[in-house]
Design a protein that fits this description.
The complex is a heterodimer of chains A (381) and B (130). Chain A is an alpha/beta fold and 381 residues long. Chain A folds into 2 domains: 4-112 and 204-228, Peroxisomal Thiolase, Chain A, domain 1 (3-Layer(aba) Sandwich); 127-201 and 230-380, Thiolase/Chalcone synthase (Peroxisomal Thiolase, Chain A, domain 1). Chain A is built from 13 helices and 11 strands. In chain A, strands 3-2-4-7-1-8-11-10-9 form a 9-stranded mixed sheet. In chain A, strands 5-6 form a two-stranded antiparallel sheet. In chain A, helix 3 (82-95) packs across helix 13 (330-343) and helix 6 crosses helix 10 (279-288). Chain A starts with a strand and ends with a strand. Chain B has 130 residues and is mainly β. Chain B has one domain (3-129). Helix content of chain B is 0%, strand content 53%. Chain B is built from no helices and 10 strands. Chain B is globular, with a radius of gyration of 16 Å. The chains are: A alpha/beta (381), B mainly beta (130).
Chain lengths: 381, 130
């Protein structure tokens, strides 16, 4: 396997833009990434794009707008892990020597999707979904169990949302740039008890893109290539094997694979972007990623260790909660965020002297499985 | 009269004692599956025996939904119940004012109408506080 570098990243502003098409959002992100990498459109050899809703052959539709055509283009879907899957697709093609340079795109327009303003509907043969299990329902059931098992409180969960909204205020791309107090979060509309509206990620439109190339040619484009040192993607295992729903074999297995490939451990990670679709979810991910021991997520929240300025900032971008969550875009977008921290370009939310960062995504509810997919990438400067 | 259509064929039955969930069990490794698996998903053994699950179990966790889901208007309750056979079942929960939900409380299976779909009444299983 060859060493692969990220040489350019870009994202559109995230928010509700019902008048903007997915192609327009995607074009904005691709142009930003090409510009960031100083790469000419004619240099691109392979492209992967991810989207859950909207038309097919999305990569072709976006890239024809910027002079890229007539090459291998692959369109993937893996629910919220779709962006991470597209990134990994490009990484694999370059690492194995098939191509030297390629682009990964994630894009979603939730406001123009068939599910705008609704919960994601279950598939016809999804028995649990038909019986009333929804995304906020899953995480509300988890929250009750976290309170029961670990003594987590409603205030602990709300504090995670306070943090990520605070971080969103530091990020010009964020959908919500507004501070909230614990009381405001707990008193917002109840969605699935105990999860309130301000503990749920919003509906968001947006896109992100990343340009990867072999380390061998990276120096042609930049003096600051960011190395992809770990990449892992796994599907969820059966829930009957999961004895405690607050302990995720999927998350810890994927993290172990990524850490082993990277040759680093959780203690080496300076900054993390992870899937915080719901505030209480972030606490579970701390443990799977090894940022603390099992059962110690509550402590990490109370010590404010994951705030910008803390020991290991988590979701300095504002995360899905404040930056917003255009499903398939988020997995490319959070890699872009890590790249900015490693380059020292993250502005007011910069992690001081960040050397290694981790981007995590989780996607999909499948009845009988723990989740659809988990994707983790570890990057280093 | 409306047709009664089960949400999943062969997943449950009604008995004089009440609702019963229909599972199957691997004759080799003993793993229990609900709904039934075509063969053992753990050891791939094809020799499976039908198993009627216990009617009562313990509430593992729950939530009360206050935003409409596909078939249920708020407030509706959902959660997991663990049955003595070791299976954790997801199902709608019946809200009983005098018996507020708490983890580990005893629950029993009931068979009930879940929702109406044109002329069909969709029938399924729920858990109710004992």
């Amino acid at each position: 396997m060859r060493e692969v570098a990220v040489i350019g990243v870009g994202q559109s502003t995230f928010g509700k833009f019902p008048q903007r098409s997915v192609v327009e959002l995607g074009r904005e992100a691709v142009l930003a990434a090409l510009n960031d990498a100083s790469v000419s459109p004619k240099d691109i050899q392979v492209a992967y794009a991810s989207r859950l809703y909207d038309v097919g052959t999305m990569a072709q539709a976006i890239l024809k707008e910027v002079g890229i055509s007539g090459l291998e283009m692959v369109n993937v879907e893996n629910a919220c892990a779709g962006g991470a899957t597209a990134f990994r697709g490009v990484w694999k093609d370059i690492a194995t020597g098939l191509y030297d340079i390629g682009i990964a795109i994630g894009v979603e327009s939730m406001t123009t999707s068939p599910i705008a303003r609704k919960l994601i509907p279950p598939a016809k043969d999804d028995l649990e979904g038909q019986l009333g299990l929804t995304m906020p329902g899953i995480f509300a059931i988890l929250a009750r169990r976290q309170m029961h098992e670990y003594g987590a409180t409603l205030e602990d969960f709300a504090m995670i949302s306070v943090k990520n909204h605070h971080h969103g205020c530091l990020n010009p791309f964020a959908q919500y740039r507004k501070e909230f107090t614990v009381e405001e979060i707990l008193n917002s509309r109840m969605i699935c008890d105990p999860i309130t509206l301000l503990q749920c990620c919003p509906n968001t439109d947006g896109a992100a893109a990343a340009i990867l190339c072999s380390m061998k040619i990276a120096k042609r484009y930049t003096t600051k290539p960011i190395k992809v040192i770990g990449s892992a993607l796994l599907s969820g295992d059966y829930t009957y094997l999961q004895k405690d729903i607050t302990i995720s074999p999927l998350g810890s297995k994927t993290a172990k694979m990524a850490y082993e490939m990277a040759g680093v451990g959780p203690e080496d990670i300076d900054v993390v972007e992870l899937h915080d679709a719901f505030a209480n979810e972030e606490m579970l991910r701390y443990e799977e990623l090894g940022l603390c021991k099992p059962g110690e997520g509550v402590r990490l929240v109370r010590e404010k260790a994951t705030w910008v300025g803390g020991k290991t900032p988590v979701n300095p971008s504002g995360g899905l909660l404040a930056l917003g969550h255009p499903l398939s875009a988020s997995g490319v977008r959070n890699i872009a965020e890590i790249v900015w921290h490693l380059r020292g370009q993250a502005g007011d939310r910069q992690t001081p002297n960040a050397k290694i960062g981790l981007a995590h995504m989780l996607g999909g509810a499948v009845a009988g499985l723990e989740a659809g997919a988990c994707g983790i990438h570890i990057l280093a400067r | 009269m409306a047709n009664r259509v089960p949400i999943r064929e062969g997943a449950f039955m009604e008995s004089p004692a009440g609702g019963i969930l229909l599972a199957n069990k691997c004759k080799s490794c003993g793993e229990v599956f609900f709904p039934k698996a075509v063969f053992c998903l753990s050891c791939f053994n094809e020799d499976m025996e039908d198993l009627r699950l216990s009617r009562k179990g313990k509430l593992y966790s729950y939530t009360i939904g206050l935003m409409a889901s596909m078939h249920f208007e708020p407030p509706y309750a959902i959660g997991y119940v663990v049955l003595p056979e070791g299976v954790r079942i997801f199902a709608p929960l019946e809200i009983v004012e005098s018996k507020p939900f708490r983890i580990d409380m005893e629950m029993e299976v009931i068979i009930d109408k879940l929702w109406q779909e044109d002329d069909n009444e969709v029938i399924g299983y729920k858990f109710k506080p004992v």
